[in-house]
Amino acid sequence: MRKAPSNLKSVAFSSTQINLTWDSNTDVPVAYEIFKSTKKDGSYNSIIKTAIGKNEYKDNEVKVGGTYFYKICVTDAKVNSDTSNFVSATTPQWMKKDKFPGDPRKSAVGFSIGDKGYVGLGDNSTSIYKRDLWEFNPKNGVWTQKANFGGTGRVDAIGFSIGNKGYVGTGYDGEYRKDFWVYDPAKNTWEKIADFEGTPRKIAVGFSIGKKGYVGTGFDEDLNYLRDFWEYEVSTDTWTKKADFGGRGRTGAIGFAIGNKGYIGTGNDENNYAKDFWEYNQMTNRWTKKANFPGGARRYAVGFTIGKFGYIATGYDKKRKYRKDLWKYNPARNEWIQEASPPKSAKPRRYAVAFSIGNRAYIGTGDEGNVRYYNKDFWEFTETGFMLKHNQ
User: Is residue 1 part of a domain?
Assistant: First the structure.
């Protein structure tokens, strides 16, 4: 009898694909039979016999949010082997959460600190600029109102976290702003820090890498589409100008960090919507162009990070279409994968907020084209695309 394959692994590559890999344990090329079940102790059905010598398989017969179990064995004209260890994988999924309890709004800020998420500022359907801040606990789904933002109510600000504190600044309150504030959740207090050193602006991007914050791009009162890029040092409360963003000046872009690299993409300038995507190297202070965003040029989307992947969702494209699609960026391969969009009950939107906690991301608020109807719904996306292995 042939030795059974070993080290079978599974990874939910996307919402509609699970990848399997294994070790052969044979001296000659052989074929394999793959068995699949929807229950660990359920009935396993044969789904394919592979080509000889192939040690991987991509299963595209899966559903969003589905959990699947797999085993494999050697199969040839003479004799089959015992089956391998079993593995399981669950494809990424969406779930509707309790509504954001503040006013429906657009152009708010969202960020996470530890295991909590925060949403605040923005404007409501009567164009009142908001200062409120709300904390979301994903463990029980409860929203709690926290201390109002220390600055003026505003729209189109940016928010990010460094360590155990949140940072919010820039934006528009009738005037273009450059003030910056730090939120301490342990004390539930806001403290003013050094003003942003670039020109006052709105609809910029911001993210953090390690203990430093970064702000760039945006739109100023002189109608300039900006491409300058700045670094904030917490320990000295100072801003330092860094290399300009590698693409055209723009507003309405997205920004996020993966590990020690930052990323900016999409957005628009006076004449064009953008789909280019750029990587910032903190160590060398250089920008490198990466694979274009394949979801189509757009502005006012959201960006966030889960683990080693970055994501872009929602937005407004050059055909004046509101979007709800979700795309995942893998920096190791410089490639984009489309994930499942939220359910039909989740409306396409722009000017939404997003933040991530662990392997989950949360997207909500924003508008869908009706200037008197803003959203307060909130959606949870669970990323399950991590390598799994089980013993038999």
Answer: no
